[in-house]
Write a structure and sequence with these properties.
Distance between the termini: 19 Å
Number of domains: 1
Structural class: mainly alpha
Membrane topology: Multi-pass membrane protein
Protein name: Multidrug transporter
Low-confidence stretches: 1-6, 292-314
InterPro entries: Diverse_Substrate_Transporter, EamA_dom, EmrE-like
Subcellular location: Cell membrane
Strand content: under 5%
Transmembrane segments: 12-31, 37-58, 70-90, 96-118, 125-144, 156-175, 182-203, 215-233, 245-264, 270-287
Length: 314
């Protein structure tokens, strides 16, 4: 095992890019007037469409999966769809701060699952870093939590969505050991999109007739939080453990709340902004002292600064 610092500055950059990217998701969802299941469906189908030009080098691997891999991909895709449905639905019922702060539970759920399934090792500094980040997350959402009406329902939906994405990430760690990032993401996104298609058909949601602005939002969701967020985090699973990758979600309340304040006019106090600094400090401690697998950076890395990472070995 080796410290994440050995892999070079590009990994930190990728991780930070992913945090910023997923933070835009709640803003785009708020801008759209379509049903959240329709938003998620086209978000994922458009993501696969963007990935199609790059599918040729991976065509053989993508069709050589065994029964176990197909079963895990199916389960992972359904869990991702469930996460989007529940979490995006929560944004219609509660504030961005409340919804995203509940996602801070994700690393705890994944840490517990990693210890159980992968015998992951944790140290005191990792727990301290997680505790600091969670404390900051609670401060961000504390002034906005409500225990009545639609806000409570929204908070519950966000919690259930967090549980679903934790399962998705753990399944991803199983699959990423023998599958490239591209193949894994393409199939998982496609399964999730088809799950939404069936759901929307059953619910009677319209598949067309949306304004050009709505299609623009769907495309933004596909490119920004999905490609530069979820795809990037799934790629990092081959280099970082699921718990470490999931710590990125603790940065989401910080940037989502800032974006909601700037773009949606939601309130953000000085205390909440200070809590954002606390969260980022906690995430830094966790990553700085966390342990990860000593693998070289693969050739398909989205960003790889020359000389900043270890060369790939065969």
């Amino acid at each position: 095992m080796t410290s994440i610092s050995r892999v070079g500055k590009s990994i930190y950059l990728l991780f930070f890019v992913g945090i910023i990217a997923i933070s835009f998701s709640s803003i785009f969802v708020r801008w759209s007037e379509a049903d959240v299941a329709v938003i998620a469906m086209y978000r994922l189908f458009l993501t696969n469409l963007v990935m199609l030009p790059f599918i040729w080098p991976h065509r053989h691997e993508m069709m050589r999966l065994d029964f176990r891999q197909w079963a895990l991909l199916l389960a992972s895709g359904v869990m991702l769809a469930l996460h989007f449905l529940l979490w995006m639905g929560s944004l219609r019922l509660t504030s961005v701060a409340s919804s995203t702060v509940i996602l801070a539970l994700e690393p705890i759920l994944i840490l517990a699952g990693s210890v159980w399934l992968f015998k992951a090792k944790i140290n005191r500094m990792m727990l301290i870093g997680m505790g600091i980040a969670l404390f900051g997350s609670i401060i961000i959402g504390a002034g906005d939590f409500q225990v009545a009406g639609t806000a409570l329902k929204g908070d519950i939906l966000s919690l259930l969505g967090t549980m679903a994405v934790a399962v998705h990430m753990l399944l991803g760690q199983f699959l990423r050991t023998g599958l490239s990032a591209f193949s894994y993401n393409f199939w998982v996104f496609l399964v999730a999109a088809c799950t939404f298609a069936v759901y929307n058909l059953f619910m009677g949601h319209a598949f067309g007739g949306y304004a050009a602005s709505e299609w623009g939002i769907f495309l933004l969701l596909a490119i920004v939080p999905t490609i530069f967020g979820h795809y990037l985090f799934n790629w990092l699973l081959q280099y970082m453990n699921a718990t470490t990758v999931s710590m990125g979600v603790l940065g989401e309340p910080v940037f989502s709340s800032l974006l909601a304040w700037m773009l949606l006019g939601e309130s953000l106090s000085t205390l909440q902004m200070s809590a954002g600094v606390v969260i980022l400090f906690g995430v830094w401690i966790f990553i700085r002292y966390g342990k990860t697998k000593p693998q070289p950076v693969p050739a398909d890395a989205p960003i790889a600064a020359p000389g900043s990472v270890e060369p790939k070995t065969v």
